[in-house]
């Protein structure tokens, strides 16, 4: 119970709420365990509730008619999945699958909406997280449709540095195959882009640890596509 309340208090959706409200929220949630590769929900399933990750990692992804997977989001402890269709009254717009053994809290739609009625702080948190998720998807669509692979990679590295609260280094927490999928490319193209960044002294790579040497060059590459040949 203590671990779950702690995660809730630090989560995007419920952060800042008092302990009484957190316990009320915990009271309407159902614990669900998921082994690696378990499907959480499928594209088109009715959105009767949403999930918050307590432990583990969940990928949210779409499948093309040709069977190609495109990762939209990787959710970890404190992050939610499946919230948008719950509040819009629609079906889940993508698939969700555990990529590591996970513990989730499932919030049934009816019970959760009844709980938040008349709770302005929680309602504002929900609006904020849904707006942030929309912005993330908008940026991702822009990256995939308008930017070359090196620019996508530079933007991803800069985003991770902000997310991890670091200015000059990050730790990759996904396999390169998953990162390349997230960026809409292949592992070989990702490796070439990373190799060029190393050659041009933008980054240093040691296993999963990446040091950001030249932030200005990375920003120019991310936003303007400057200082690197196409891959």
Task: Characterize this entry briefly.
The chain is 45% helix and 23% strand.
Walk me through this protein's architecture.
The strands form three sheets. The chain has a four-stranded antiparallel β-sheet with strand order 1-8-3-6. A four-stranded antiparallel β-sheet has the order 2-7-4-5. A three-stranded antiparallel β-sheet has the order 9-11-10. A hairpin with a 2-residue loop joins strand 10 (203-206) and strand 11 (209-212). It is globular, with a radius of gyration of 19 Å. The chain has helices spanning 2-10, 19-28, 83-88, 109-116, 120-146, 149-163, 176-182, 187-199, 215-224; strands at residues 30-34, 39-41, 49-55, 58-63, 69-75, 80-81, 95-98, 102-108, 169-171, 203-206, 209-212. It has 231 residues and is of the alpha+beta class. It has two domains: 2-144, Jelly Rolls; 147-224, Arc Repressor Mutant, subunit A.
Alpha-beta classification: alpha+beta
Instruction: Give the C-level CATH assignment of the largest domain.
Output: Mainly Beta
Largest beta sheet: strand ordering: 1-8-3-6
How many helix segments?
Answer: 9
Computed over alpha carbons, the radius of gyration is 19 Å
End-to-end separation: 50 Å
Number of strands: 11
- Biggest sheet details: 4 strands, antiparallel
Unreliably modeled segments: none
Helix content: 40-55%
**For the residues shown, what is the average pLDDT?**
84
Overall number of domains: 2
CATH superfamily of the largest domain: Jelly Rolls
Order of helices and strands: HHEEEEEEHEEHHHEHHEEH
**So what's the overall shape?**
globular
State which percent range the strand residues make up. 15-25%
CATH topology-level name of the largest domain: Jelly Rolls
